[in-house]
Protein backbone atom coordinates (compact mmCIF):
# COMPACT_ATOMS: atom_id res chain seq x y z
CA UNK A 1 0.00 0.00 0.00
CA UNK A 2 1.34 3.44 -0.95
CA UNK A 3 1.98 5.73 2.00
CA UNK A 4 0.58 9.29 2.12
CA UNK A 5 4.10 10.72 1.76
CA UNK A 6 4.71 8.68 -1.41
CA UNK A 7 1.39 9.84 -2.81
CA UNK A 8 2.26 13.45 -2.13
CA UNK A 9 5.65 12.99 -3.81
CA UNK A 10 4.07 11.36 -6.87
CA UNK A 11 1.51 14.15 -7.15
CA UNK A 12 4.25 16.76 -6.87
CA UNK A 13 6.36 15.10 -9.60
CA UNK A 14 3.39 14.77 -11.94
CA UNK A 15 2.37 18.39 -11.40
CA UNK A 16 5.92 19.57 -12.05
CA UNK A 17 6.15 17.58 -15.29
CA UNK A 18 2.72 18.83 -16.36
CA UNK A 19 3.66 22.47 -15.70
CA UNK A 20 6.80 22.01 -17.81
CA UNK A 21 4.75 20.93 -20.83
CA UNK A 22 4.34 17.18 -20.38
CA UNK A 23 0.90 15.70 -20.97
CA UNK A 24 -0.81 14.61 -17.80
CA UNK A 25 -1.50 11.10 -19.09
CA UNK A 26 2.16 10.57 -20.07
CA UNK A 27 3.41 11.92 -16.76
CA UNK A 28 1.12 9.50 -14.90
CA UNK A 29 2.23 6.64 -17.13
CA UNK A 30 5.86 7.22 -16.16
CA UNK A 31 4.93 6.48 -12.54
CA UNK A 32 2.68 3.54 -13.52
CA UNK A 33 -0.55 5.12 -12.29
CA UNK A 34 -3.68 6.15 -14.14
CA UNK A 35 -4.93 9.69 -14.55
CA UNK A 36 -7.99 8.75 -12.52
CA UNK A 37 -5.79 7.55 -9.65
CA UNK A 38 -3.82 10.79 -9.77
CA UNK A 39 -7.03 12.84 -9.66
CA UNK A 40 -8.26 10.80 -6.71
CA UNK A 41 -4.98 11.31 -4.87
CA UNK A 42 -5.23 15.04 -5.47
CA UNK A 43 -8.75 15.21 -4.07
CA UNK A 44 -8.09 12.86 -1.16
CA UNK A 45 -4.64 14.13 -0.36
CA UNK A 46 -5.75 17.70 0.25
CA UNK A 47 -3.55 19.12 -2.52
CA UNK A 48 -4.66 21.47 -5.27
CA UNK A 49 -3.21 21.53 -8.75
CA UNK A 50 -1.09 24.54 -7.88
CA UNK A 51 0.29 22.92 -4.73
CA UNK A 52 -1.74 24.89 -2.22
CA UNK A 53 -3.44 22.91 0.55
CA UNK A 54 -7.17 22.53 0.04
CA UNK A 55 -9.42 24.12 2.61
CA UNK A 56 -11.47 21.65 4.63
CA UNK A 57 -15.14 21.85 3.85
CA UNK A 58 -17.05 23.00 6.91
CA UNK A 59 -19.77 20.76 8.24
CA UNK A 60 -23.24 22.00 7.18
CA UNK A 61 -25.03 23.89 9.94
CA UNK A 62 -28.33 22.21 9.09
CA UNK A 63 -26.93 18.67 9.37
CA UNK A 64 -29.03 16.34 11.51
CA UNK A 65 -27.50 15.20 14.77
CA UNK A 66 -26.99 11.56 15.61
CA UNK A 67 -29.82 11.80 18.13
CA UNK A 68 -32.21 13.24 15.52
CA UNK A 69 -31.38 10.45 13.09
CA UNK A 70 -32.02 7.86 15.77
CA UNK A 71 -35.34 9.53 16.54
CA UNK A 72 -36.34 9.29 12.85
CA UNK A 73 -35.50 5.59 12.81
CA UNK A 74 -37.60 5.00 15.92
CA UNK A 75 -40.58 6.87 14.46
CA UNK A 76 -40.67 5.03 11.12
CA UNK A 77 -40.67 1.71 13.01
CA UNK A 78 -43.72 2.60 15.08
CA UNK A 79 -46.86 0.63 14.29
CA UNK A 80 -48.79 3.70 13.18
CA UNK A 81 -46.05 4.72 10.70
CA UNK A 82 -44.48 1.43 9.63
CA UNK A 83 -46.54 1.19 6.41
CA UNK A 84 -46.29 4.87 5.49
CA UNK A 85 -43.75 6.84 3.40
CA UNK A 86 -42.14 10.01 4.79
CA UNK A 87 -44.55 12.16 2.76
CA UNK A 88 -47.32 10.77 4.99
CA UNK A 89 -45.33 10.57 8.23
CA UNK A 90 -44.14 14.21 8.39
CA UNK A 91 -47.63 15.77 8.08
CA UNK A 92 -49.00 13.36 10.69
CA UNK A 93 -46.20 14.36 13.08
CA UNK A 94 -47.00 18.02 12.45
CA UNK A 95 -50.63 17.30 13.45
CA UNK A 96 -49.18 16.05 16.74
CA UNK A 97 -47.17 19.29 17.03
CA UNK A 98 -43.92 17.42 16.37
CA UNK A 99 -41.26 18.42 13.84
CA UNK A 100 -37.93 16.62 13.51
CA UNK A 101 -36.91 17.04 9.87
CA UNK A 102 -38.28 17.44 6.37
CA UNK A 103 -39.50 14.62 4.15
CA UNK A 104 -36.24 14.70 2.15
CA UNK A 105 -34.24 14.30 5.37
CA UNK A 106 -36.41 11.35 6.37
CA UNK A 107 -35.75 9.76 2.97
CA UNK A 108 -32.01 10.43 3.28
CA UNK A 109 -31.82 8.75 6.70
CA UNK A 110 -33.78 5.75 5.42
CA UNK A 111 -31.42 5.41 2.45
CA UNK A 112 -28.36 5.60 4.73
CA UNK A 113 -29.71 2.70 6.79
CA UNK A 114 -30.98 0.77 3.73
CA UNK A 115 -34.58 1.14 4.85
CA UNK A 116 -35.82 2.93 1.72
CA UNK A 117 -38.02 0.02 0.70
CA UNK A 118 -41.39 -1.54 1.44
CA UNK A 119 -41.66 -1.68 5.21
CA UNK A 120 -44.18 -3.49 7.37
CA UNK A 121 -47.03 -5.29 5.61
CA UNK A 122 -46.61 -3.37 2.37
CA UNK A 123 -45.09 -5.53 -0.33
CA UNK A 124 -43.11 -4.73 -3.40
CA UNK A 125 -45.40 -4.84 -6.46
CA UNK A 126 -45.00 -8.17 -8.20
CA UNK A 127 -43.92 -7.97 -11.79
CA UNK A 128 -46.17 -10.18 -13.81
CA UNK A 129 -44.30 -11.97 -16.57
CA UNK A 130 -45.94 -12.66 -19.93
CA UNK A 131 -47.11 -16.16 -20.77
CA UNK A 132 -44.41 -18.05 -22.66
CA UNK A 133 -44.88 -20.93 -25.10
CA UNK A 134 -42.48 -22.93 -27.28
CA UNK A 135 -43.39 -24.30 -30.70
CA UNK A 136 -41.20 -27.02 -32.24
CA UNK A 137 -43.47 -27.70 -35.22
CA UNK A 138 -46.43 -26.14 -37.04
CA UNK A 139 -49.88 -26.09 -35.40
CA UNK A 140 -48.58 -26.07 -31.84
CA UNK A 141 -48.88 -22.36 -31.02
CA UNK A 142 -51.14 -19.91 -32.82
CA UNK A 143 -51.51 -16.21 -32.18
CA UNK A 144 -54.43 -14.08 -33.34
CA UNK A 145 -55.75 -10.56 -33.20
CA UNK A 146 -58.16 -8.14 -34.86
CA UNK A 147 -57.19 -4.97 -36.73
CA UNK A 148 -59.39 -2.26 -38.18
CA UNK A 149 -59.39 -1.37 -41.87
CA UNK A 150 -60.78 1.95 -43.10
CA UNK A 151 -64.10 1.83 -44.90
CA UNK A 152 -65.48 4.12 -47.64
CA UNK A 153 -66.46 6.95 -45.27
CA UNK A 154 -64.86 8.53 -42.23
CA UNK A 155 -65.59 6.62 -39.03
CA UNK A 156 -66.51 3.38 -40.80
CA UNK A 157 -64.19 0.39 -40.38
CA UNK A 158 -64.02 -3.26 -41.32
CA UNK A 159 -62.50 -5.78 -38.89
CA UNK A 160 -59.80 -8.15 -40.07
CA UNK A 161 -59.58 -11.32 -37.94
CA UNK A 162 -56.25 -13.05 -38.52
CA UNK A 163 -54.61 -16.20 -37.08
CA UNK A 164 -50.87 -16.93 -37.44
CA UNK A 165 -48.84 -20.06 -36.75
CA UNK A 166 -45.73 -18.78 -34.95
CA UNK A 167 -43.48 -21.68 -36.04
CA UNK A 168 -44.07 -21.29 -39.78
CA UNK A 169 -45.41 -17.68 -39.73
CA UNK A 170 -48.20 -18.90 -42.01
CA UNK A 171 -51.57 -17.13 -41.93
CA UNK A 172 -53.67 -20.20 -41.18
CA UNK A 173 -56.99 -18.39 -40.90
CA UNK A 174 -58.49 -15.01 -41.64
CA UNK A 175 -61.79 -13.28 -42.31
CA UNK A 176 -63.19 -9.74 -42.53
CA UNK A 177 -66.47 -8.66 -40.98
CA UNK A 178 -68.15 -5.35 -40.32
CA UNK A 179 -68.34 -5.90 -36.56
CA UNK A 180 -66.16 -7.23 -33.77
CA UNK A 181 -68.09 -10.08 -32.16
CA UNK A 182 -67.39 -13.39 -30.47
CA UNK A 183 -69.56 -15.31 -32.96
CA UNK A 184 -67.24 -14.28 -35.81
CA UNK A 185 -64.22 -15.45 -33.83
CA UNK A 186 -65.93 -18.78 -33.16
CA UNK A 187 -66.76 -19.28 -36.84
CA UNK A 188 -63.20 -18.48 -37.92
CA UNK A 189 -61.68 -20.79 -35.30
CA UNK A 190 -63.84 -23.77 -36.30
CA UNK A 191 -63.08 -23.21 -39.99
CA UNK A 192 -59.33 -22.92 -39.36
CA UNK A 193 -59.19 -26.07 -37.24
CA UNK A 194 -60.99 -28.01 -40.00
CA UNK A 195 -58.72 -26.63 -42.75
CA UNK A 196 -55.59 -27.55 -40.81
CA UNK A 197 -56.98 -31.00 -39.89
CA UNK A 198 -55.83 -30.77 -36.28
CA UNK A 199 -59.06 -31.21 -34.33
CA UNK A 200 -58.27 -32.83 -30.98
CA UNK A 201 -54.55 -32.08 -31.20
CA UNK A 202 -52.70 -30.01 -28.56
CA UNK A 203 -52.76 -26.34 -29.46
CA UNK A 204 -52.12 -23.04 -27.68
CA UNK A 205 -54.04 -19.98 -28.89
CA UNK A 206 -52.54 -16.66 -27.77
CA UNK A 207 -54.32 -13.32 -28.01
CA UNK A 208 -54.75 -9.99 -26.28
CA UNK A 209 -57.56 -9.19 -23.86
CA UNK A 210 -60.20 -7.97 -26.33
CA UNK A 211 -63.85 -8.80 -25.70
CA UNK A 212 -64.16 -11.33 -28.58
CA UNK A 213 -61.07 -13.15 -27.27
CA UNK A 214 -62.40 -13.49 -23.72
CA UNK A 215 -66.10 -13.97 -24.46
CA UNK A 216 -67.67 -16.85 -22.54
CA UNK A 217 -69.05 -18.57 -25.65
CA UNK A 218 -65.65 -18.41 -27.35
CA UNK A 219 -63.98 -19.88 -24.28
CA UNK A 220 -66.47 -22.75 -24.27
CA UNK A 221 -65.65 -23.47 -27.92
CA UNK A 222 -61.91 -23.55 -27.20
CA UNK A 223 -62.48 -26.00 -24.36
CA UNK A 224 -64.52 -28.27 -26.62
CA UNK A 225 -61.77 -28.19 -29.24
CA UNK A 226 -59.09 -28.88 -26.62
CA UNK A 227 -57.33 -25.56 -27.23
CA UNK A 228 -55.38 -23.91 -24.43
CA UNK A 229 -56.02 -20.17 -24.07
CA UNK A 230 -53.14 -17.76 -23.54
CA UNK A 231 -53.39 -13.99 -23.07
CA UNK A 232 -51.20 -10.92 -23.17
CA UNK A 233 -50.83 -8.81 -20.07
CA UNK A 234 -53.35 -5.94 -19.90
CA UNK A 235 -52.27 -2.92 -21.97
CA UNK A 236 -49.06 -4.65 -23.16
CA UNK A 237 -49.13 -5.03 -26.96
CA UNK A 238 -45.59 -6.47 -27.04
CA UNK A 239 -46.88 -9.73 -25.58
CA UNK A 240 -48.47 -10.52 -28.95
CA UNK A 241 -45.54 -9.60 -31.23
CA UNK A 242 -46.27 -11.89 -34.19
CA UNK A 243 -49.75 -10.49 -34.78
CA UNK A 244 -48.55 -6.92 -34.30
CA UNK A 245 -45.71 -7.45 -36.81
CA UNK A 246 -48.13 -9.03 -39.27
CA UNK A 247 -50.48 -6.06 -39.19
CA UNK A 248 -47.56 -3.71 -39.72
CA UNK A 249 -46.44 -5.71 -42.77
CA UNK A 250 -49.99 -5.70 -44.12
CA UNK A 251 -50.56 -1.96 -43.75
CA UNK A 252 -47.14 -1.03 -45.17
CA UNK A 253 -47.62 -2.91 -48.42
CA UNK A 254 -47.29 -0.48 -51.40
CA UNK A 255 -50.71 -1.46 -52.74
CA UNK A 256 -52.51 -1.08 -49.40
CA UNK A 257 -55.44 1.34 -49.89
CA UNK A 258 -54.68 4.00 -47.28
CA UNK A 259 -57.83 5.93 -48.17
CA UNK A 260 -60.01 2.97 -47.26
CA UNK A 261 -61.85 0.09 -48.90
CA UNK A 262 -64.94 0.85 -50.96
CA UNK A 263 -66.93 -2.19 -49.82
CA UNK A 264 -66.60 -5.28 -47.61
CA UNK A 265 -66.19 -7.42 -50.74
CA UNK A 266 -63.31 -5.24 -51.98
CA UNK A 267 -61.60 -5.55 -48.60
CA UNK A 268 -61.93 -9.33 -48.68
CA UNK A 269 -60.56 -9.51 -52.24
CA UNK A 270 -57.54 -7.44 -51.26
CA UNK A 271 -56.92 -9.52 -48.13
CA UNK A 272 -57.12 -12.74 -50.17
CA UNK A 273 -54.36 -11.49 -52.49
CA UNK A 274 -52.26 -10.34 -49.55
CA UNK A 275 -52.54 -13.69 -47.76
CA UNK A 276 -51.58 -15.55 -50.94
CA UNK A 277 -48.53 -13.30 -51.39
CA UNK A 278 -47.52 -13.54 -47.75
CA UNK A 279 -47.90 -17.32 -47.45
CA UNK A 280 -46.66 -18.46 -50.85
CA UNK A 281 -44.37 -15.76 -52.31
CA UNK A 282 -42.91 -13.69 -49.49
CA UNK A 283 -39.50 -14.94 -48.24
CA UNK A 284 -39.76 -14.42 -44.51
CA UNK A 285 -36.60 -13.24 -42.73
CA UNK A 286 -37.68 -14.85 -39.44
CA UNK A 287 -37.56 -18.35 -40.96
CA UNK A 288 -34.35 -17.94 -42.96
CA UNK A 289 -35.95 -16.57 -46.11
CA UNK A 290 -38.32 -19.33 -47.10
CA UNK A 291 -42.06 -18.81 -47.54
CA UNK A 292 -44.40 -19.53 -44.62
CA UNK A 293 -46.16 -22.16 -46.76
CA UNK A 294 -42.85 -23.97 -47.38
CA UNK A 295 -42.08 -23.92 -43.68
CA UNK A 296 -45.58 -25.06 -42.74
CA UNK A 297 -45.39 -28.12 -45.01
CA UNK A 298 -41.76 -28.96 -44.20
CA UNK A 299 -40.53 -28.27 -47.76
CA UNK A 300 -38.17 -25.61 -46.38
CA UNK A 301 -35.73 -28.23 -45.06
CA UNK A 302 -34.80 -29.47 -48.53
CA UNK A 303 -34.72 -25.92 -49.91
CA UNK A 304 -32.29 -24.78 -47.22
CA UNK A 305 -30.10 -27.86 -47.71
CA UNK A 306 -29.79 -27.04 -51.43
CA UNK A 307 -28.85 -23.44 -50.60
CA UNK A 308 -26.17 -24.75 -48.29
CA UNK A 309 -24.76 -26.91 -51.10
CA UNK A 310 -24.68 -23.92 -53.46
CA UNK A 311 -22.67 -21.91 -50.96
CA UNK A 312 -20.27 -24.75 -50.22
CA UNK A 313 -19.54 -25.20 -53.94
CA UNK A 314 -19.00 -21.46 -54.30
CA UNK A 315 -16.51 -21.52 -51.45
CA UNK A 316 -14.64 -24.45 -52.98
CA UNK A 317 -14.42 -22.59 -56.28
CA UNK A 318 -13.14 -19.34 -54.75
CA UNK A 319 -11.87 -20.03 -51.22
CA UNK A 320 -10.02 -16.70 -51.17
CA UNK A 321 -13.36 -14.89 -51.06
CA UNK A 322 -14.42 -16.55 -47.82
CA UNK A 323 -12.69 -15.60 -44.58
CA UNK A 324 -15.14 -17.56 -42.47
CA UNK A 325 -17.67 -20.36 -42.88
CA UNK A 326 -20.49 -20.03 -45.37
CA UNK A 327 -23.83 -18.53 -44.51
CA UNK A 328 -25.92 -20.52 -42.07
CA UNK A 329 -28.84 -21.99 -43.99
CA UNK A 330 -29.99 -24.27 -41.18
CA UNK A 331 -33.69 -24.71 -40.58
CA UNK A 332 -34.90 -23.46 -37.20
CA UNK A 333 -36.05 -26.11 -34.77
CA UNK A 334 -38.18 -24.01 -32.42
CA UNK A 335 -39.84 -20.63 -31.98
CA UNK A 336 -40.73 -19.13 -28.60
CA UNK A 337 -43.57 -16.77 -27.82
CA UNK A 338 -42.39 -14.25 -25.18
CA UNK A 339 -39.40 -16.44 -24.26
CA UNK A 340 -38.10 -16.38 -20.72
CA UNK A 341 -34.31 -16.46 -20.27
CA UNK A 342 -34.30 -19.66 -18.22
CA UNK A 343 -36.54 -21.44 -20.71
CA UNK A 344 -34.30 -20.44 -23.60
CA UNK A 345 -31.18 -21.73 -21.87
CA UNK A 346 -32.97 -24.94 -20.87
CA UNK A 347 -33.90 -25.58 -24.48
CA UNK A 348 -30.47 -24.65 -25.80
CA UNK A 349 -31.62 -21.46 -27.55
CA UNK A 350 -29.35 -18.43 -27.36
UniProtKB/TrEMBL annotation:
Residues 134-300 form the Integrase catalytic domain. Gene3D superfamilies: Ribonuclease H-like superfamily/Ribonuclease H. It holds the Pfam family rve. It comes from the Bacteria. InterPro entries: Homeodomain-like_sf, Integrase_cat-core, RNaseH-like_sf, RNaseH_sf, Transpos_IS3, Transposase_IS3/IS150/IS904. This is Integrase catalytic domain-containing protein. It comes from Amphibacillus indicireducens. The lineage of its organism: Bacteria, Bacillati, Bacillota, Bacilli, Bacillales.
Amino acid sequence: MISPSDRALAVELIQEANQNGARLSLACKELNISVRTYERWVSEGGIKEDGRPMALRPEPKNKLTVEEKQEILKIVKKEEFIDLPPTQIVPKLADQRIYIASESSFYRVLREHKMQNHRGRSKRPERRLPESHLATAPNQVWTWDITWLKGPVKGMFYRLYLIIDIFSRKIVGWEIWETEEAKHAEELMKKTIINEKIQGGPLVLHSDNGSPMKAATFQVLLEKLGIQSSYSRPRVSNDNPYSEAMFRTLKYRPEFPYNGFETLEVAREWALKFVDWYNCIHLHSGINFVTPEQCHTGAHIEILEKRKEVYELAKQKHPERWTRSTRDWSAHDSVALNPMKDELEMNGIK
